[in-house]
Design brief:
This is MarR family winged helix-turn-helix transcriptional regulator. By secondary structure, this protein is mainly α. Helices cover about 60% and strands about 5% of the residues. The radius of gyration is 22 Å and the shape is globular.
């Protein structure tokens, strides 16, 4: 009989259901933080989602200018709802809108860098929590986690877009108009409103 201690089995990796539960828990907590930030700023939860999309666009994380129609597609909102979201964000000082120099009909949305102080103050503890948790992992482990999260984000984005395209194709086949389609003068135009009228005369 050998006197050597048996080699302990390496822990089994979580299965897809366990991974799903972990990701859902993380997403839920992030959404709740976003809801709390929205409430503290007097905004709606959808406003925070729009603000994050605008911040990514302004930082160059996503290509191309941020426009109302782009937000409409990403957030699955009507044209009127997107305008209402942008109105609230502009009143709160988070964003501003401008007309494209080459096409005055096109509206572009920009994040106000100075407004980042409000978000930074609120989410600073989140960054501290991230740093504290990351300190318990090796650089190799963190690279693996980052690669996994990056691929998951890309995969879920592709799934979301595919499902929306399939739903639109099904509506087109039935001759049903997309309920988000209203009377618009162009793909990135907005209904007339006082803030744009005053700014552009």
């Amino acid at each position: 009989m050998s006197d050597q201690e048996p080699t302990p089995e390496a822990p089994r990796p979580p299965d897809s259901r366990a991974f799903g539960n972990l990701l859902q828990g993380l997403a839920s907590e992030m959404n709740l933080l976003g809801h709390d930030f929205a409430a503290a700023q007097g905004l709606h939860a959808t406003d925070v989602q729009a603000l994050l999309a605008i911040m990514r666009g302004s930082a160059g994380v996503t290509p191309g200018p941020v426009t109302p129609s782009r937000l409409r597609e990403e957030l699955a909102l009507t044209s009127g709802a997107v305008t209402a979201v942008l109105d609230r964000l502009e009143r709160a000082g988070h964003i501003h809108r401008s007309r494209d120099a080459a096409d005055r009909r096109q509206v572009q949305v920009h994040y106000n860098p100075g407004a980042s102080r409000m978000a930074a103050a609120w989410f600073a503890p989140v960054a501290a929590c991230t740093d504290e948790v990351a300190a318990g992992f090796s650089p190799d482990e963190l690279r693996t986690v980052a690669r996994f999260l990056g691929r998951m984000t890309t995969g879920l984005e592709e799934l979301r877009r595919t499902r929306r395209e399939d739903a639109q194709d099904a509506q087109d086949a039935r001759g049903v108009q997309d309920p988000r389609d209203g009377a618009r003068t162009g793909p990135d135009s907005e209904p007339p409103s006082s803030h744009m009228t005053n700014r552009n005369g």
